[in-house]
Amino acid sequence: MLEIADDPDAWRAAGFTVGSGPPPRVRLGGVEVVLTGSGGRPADERGVTGVGITGIDADLDGLPRCDHAPASPGPDHAGHERPDAGHAVRHPNGVRRLDHIVLVTPDCDRTTAAFVAAGLEVRRVRRIPAGDATRRQTFFWLGDVIAELVGDDSAHGAGPTRVWGLALTVADIEHTAAVLGDALGPVRPAVQPGRRIATLRTRELGISTAIAVMSPHRPGGAGPVGGQDPGAGGAGPADGQEGGAGGAGR
């Protein structure tokens, strides 16, 4: 479950079906997004204000906790379906589910240790040259969603872990591009072979979190985590898209 300080009309304008609430909610597969309202604040002062993972109560290195209870919980962090999990919701933009969530940290070692202590399992680690530094990507399963933790490989900075952005799977990315028009950036090949990706121009829409949309995983595609290559879509700051909330598609 996520809480995002956005107004529901902004998400409707991006082609999402928004429940009436209160508070208004958007279902992305097994994940609920609660829209808590912008309160008139600019996008760079909002973003994701709460993260809830079913079955995890421990502190996740400063990630903010949700204030609302889920209306219909999805799978827990181990992937076990809840008996009252919600049904799929049709979105005009063709979005099916939340594929992965990108998190940034000033200290990869500290955040990874906190996640492991909370009961999450490291499924893969990847290091990518980035100028004079090295970026580290560490991947975890959060139920049926991948968490991609990104940071400088050797840094030990202060400050909490935060959500950088979301990558969503769509049924047909060409349909999504047609529905969204200029609100979506160019469709391009993703890092993962056979997939394509485009970034939502969230700032123009009034959405305060970076969002990318991706074509579906290839059937039978091999990968190190549950048959998928986590994070291989290229929707994150380690892949040359460094920026703040709402910066996608600029």
Within the CATH hierarchy, at the fold level, what is the topology?
Answer: 2,3-Dihydroxybiphenyl 1,2-Dioxygenase, domain 1
How many individual domains? 1
Structural class computed from helices and strand pairing: mainly beta
In terms of DSSP E residues, the strand content is: 25-35%
Q: What is the name of the CATH superfamily?
A: 2,3-Dihydroxybiphenyl 1,2-Dioxygenase, domain 1
- Strands of the widest sheet, in order across it, are 6-7-8-5-9-12-11-10
CATH architecture: Roll
Query: End-to-end span in angstroms?
Result: 27 Å
Put simply, the count of helices is 4
Order of helices and strands: EHEEEEHEEEEHEEHE
The low-confidence parts are: 74-86, 222-233, 238-250
Please give a structural write-up.
With about 250 residues, the chain is mainly beta. It has helices at about 10-15, 110-115, 175-180, 200-205, and strands at about 1-5, 25-30, 30-35, 50, 95-105, 120-130, 135-140, 145-150, 160-170, 190, 195-200, 210-215. The strands form two sheets. Strands 6-7-8-5-9-12-11-10 form an eight-stranded mixed sheet. Strands 2-3-1-4 form a four-stranded mixed sheet, with no helix packed on it. The chain starts with a strand and ends in a 36-residue tail after the last strand.
